[in-house]
Amino acid sequence: MERKILLKHLDVPGIRTFGVFRSTGGYRSVEHALKNMTPDEVVEEVKESGLRGRGGAGFPAGMKWSFIDRKSNKPRYLICNADESEPGTFKDRYLMEKIPHLLIEGMICSCYALGANTGYIYVRGEYKYIIGILNEAIREAYDHGFLGKNILGSNYNLDIHVHSGAGAYICGEETALIESLEGKRGNPRIKPPFPAVVGLYGCPTVVNNVETLANIGFIVNHGGSEFARYGMGKSTGTKLISACGNINNPGVYEIELGLSVREFLYDPKYCGGIKNGKELKAVIAGGSSVPILPANLILQTAAGAERLMTYESLAEGGFVSGTMLGSGGFIVYDEDACIVRNTWNLARFYHHESCGQCSPCREGTGWMENVLHRIENGHGRQKDIDLLVSIASKIEGNTICPLGDAAAWPVASAIRHFRHEFEEHVLHPERCGRNEIGKLENVES
Amino acid sequence: MLDKRINHPLHEKEGKEICFSEASLQKVEQIISRYPKGKEKSALLPLLHIAQEEFEGYLSVDVMDYVAKILNIQPIEVYEVATFYSQYYLDPVGKHVIEICRTGPCAICGGEAMQAYLEKKLSVKEGETTTDGLFTLKAVECLGACGSAPVMQINTEFYEHLTFEKIDQILDELTKKAKEAKSEKSLWKEKFF
Questions:
Q1: Does B45 sit within 8 Å of A166, measured CB to CB?
Q2: Of A428-442, B21-35, B50-64, which gets the smallest average pLDDT?
Q3: Which of A102, A192, B4, B11 could form a disulfide with A214 if both were Cys (CB 3.0 to 4.6 A apart)?
Q4: Residues of chain A with pLDDT > 70: what percent?
């Protein structure tokens, strides 16, 4: 049976408004937490739930919370990371657009647990209309006494503000986001110290993804152990997966972790199979940064086991034959897709988005883009392929933030699994022909 | 490209007298109040959005200096931010900025063809403005609407599942509107903040 936590009431008309949301049991967790629980008890429940960060890295949320410096007498902050910019990922946008109060409710409980009196939602600048929706939801929450001073007579005060970014992928990295929120360039900071100790304005700060925070209400209401009954093993709960590319039903789906990749890909309830009856060629399972896998390895592990939508199963085989669940951006490529062109496209993205702080990333992403562009346009040399592998390996692990890794992995994995296509492009550039796609005269409308 | 952003020559200071409208000043005050005392610089990104909207769609040096004065920070602190983020424009733009997504998921669903079509239809290259000053075409990175690829954004509006016909229709409508109401400002700022 399909079980949902986040999108359960998605189809209730008017769920975006406070009244309707409240009538479906919304904000009950705030009442419960503020009246019956201590902040530490909330943290314990989140720890027990096994909830892992939904932004991409999958770090246990409860553990992140427990690192917050409680001895410091500085103010504490919670920042909601709504700077969703990972190509292929659009789940947070969907959640905020459809059920914004779920996020506000989760944030109130989380701020209470952390002892924060101010929360910021950092929304990427491109989502201007989402900012309007969030501001409206926040206003409603103030009007009904769930935000502001002395919430529900508990003596607990909380303000939540929306803050807009201005178009920078790097600001999804938590320390870059903090810099940006302070009104600076989005250059990631060296860790340690971690934000839990020295974060926004030098104060203890927790940064959580939208989807992570939206789960907190359920955990407070039903307990961490109940949440842990959803999902499989250490991959507890459900996950929003944003599916796109060459499939019949692109969109956002809430799945219980543990669903098989095959079912997700072919069941009409989800992706509904490959568009136009084509064959599956490859999948990027967790947003553009994670390694691409060819059809055989995404459906089964190298050992022949069924591949499941869990953190562990997708990672099985390491980077030799596995990938990551990442942010849940599920990009599907059919048999016609050109892996070389796609890899060049993503390399260009990372080059554009590198903040320029670390040399390996600043220079390396540009080199990778140039070499890939050369191969894609018929001027590649045989040794270029190994050159790419070498550049990628020299970026990976040598930068302050994970953008370097995120730029290296797509290139390294594409060559690992589709080396023959790169060779084909070098030896017979005329055979692919997909680099003509962008030329108008070659397109059927 | 990164290099372009770093090396972007700022325009000469013209020494124009700049001032926000009364309504914008109220918004500015309200935004600044969201951050702790002494941390007003946090309001820089939102303020630049407002400034860009109010002053012809781009950030001139005069405008940036004005924002610096409001926040009581050095002008260089504004320049370094304005040159970093891709949504701030340092050159004059058309009335409507068309942002067409060029990243992977859109590209495999026909995004490249849509960009080519826009370039042909508007007779501009990526980054350029039409001679009538109505449209600027920009190819941007992922807009986070991959499920409805190919997509573009014009001002606050997302246009999804693009086809050539749809683009024709959208541009015709905007052109028509521009002719009808010359001075009508978009209302996004009201909703935005």
A1: yes
A2: A428-442
A3: A102
A4: 97
Torsion of CA A273, A275, A277, A281, to 10 degrees: -80
- Which of B154, B144, B177 has its CA nearest to residue B98? B154
Residue B180 has a pLDDT of: 78
pLDDT of residue A431: 81
Across the interface, do A93 and B193 touch by the CB < 8 Å criterion? no
What ipTM does this complex have?
Answer: 0.93
Q: pLDDT tens digit string along A129-183?
A: 999 999 999 999 999 999 999 999 999 999 999 999 999 999 999 999 999 999 9
The distance of A162 to chain B (nearest Cα, Å) reads 8
**Chain B environment of A354 (Cβ under 8 Å):** 2
Whole-angstrom distance, CA of residue A415 vs CA of residue A282: 13
The domains located in chain B, with CATH, are 2-82 (1.10.10), 96-180 (3.40.30.10)
Which residues in chain A are closer than 8 Å to B30, comparing Cβ atoms? none
Contact A100, A93 (CB under 8 A): no
- Do the Cβ atoms of B164 and A75 come within 8 Å? no
Are A88 and B39 an interchain contact pair (Cβ–Cβ within 8 Å)? no
Give the gap in angstroms from C-alpha A69 to the nearest C-alpha of chain B: 20
Q: Which of A79, A86, A90, A158 to mutate to test the interface with B (most CBs of B within 10 A)?
A: A90
- A287-342 pLDDT, tens digit per residue, is 999 999 999 999 999 999 999 999 999 999 999 999 999 999 999 999 999 999 99
Q: What is the dihedral of CA A89, A92, A96, A101, to 10 degrees?
A: 160
What domains can you pick out in chain A, each with its CATH number? 18-229 (3.40.50.11540), 232-334 (3.10.20.600), 339-436 (1.20.1440.230)
Alpha carbons A204 and A201: distance in angstroms, whole number = 9
Instruction: Please report which confidence band the pLDDT of residue A437 belongs to, taking 50, 70 and 90 as the band edges.
Output: low
Q: Which of B36, B84, B110 sits opposite A201 (nearest CB)?
A: B36
In the chain, the amino acid numbered A281 is K
Chain-chain contact of A440 with B77 (C-beta, under 8 angstroms): no
Q: How far is A47 from chain B (nearest CA, A)?
A: 31
Closest residue in B to A354 (Cα) is B2
Residue B114 contacts residue A63 (beta carbons within 8 Å): no
Chain A nearest C-alpha distance from B167 (Å): 12
- CB < 8 Å to B1, chain A: 351-352
d(CA A326, CA A286): 4
Residues of A in contact with B168 (CB under 8 A): none
Q: Residue A182 has what DSSP assignment?
A: T
Give the span between the Cα atoms of A258 and A248, in whole angstroms: 22
From the list B34, B110, B142, which residue is nearest A161 (CB)?
Answer: B34
pLDDT tens, position by position, A191-239? 999 999 999 999 999 999 999 999 999 999 999 999 999 999 999 999 9
Q: From the CB of residue A347, how many other CB atoms can be counted at a distance below 10 Å?
A: 28
Enumerate the residues of chain A whose CB falls inside 8 A of the CB of residue B85. 125, 165-168, 186
CA atoms in the 13 A half-sphere facing the CB of A119: 32
Which of A166, A244, A345 is facing B147, going by the closest CB pair?
Answer: A244
Name chain B contacts of A76, Cβ cutoff 8 Å.
none
Element (H, E) at A65: helix A61-66
Do the Cβ atoms of A376 and A436 come closer than 8 Å? no
DSSP A411: H
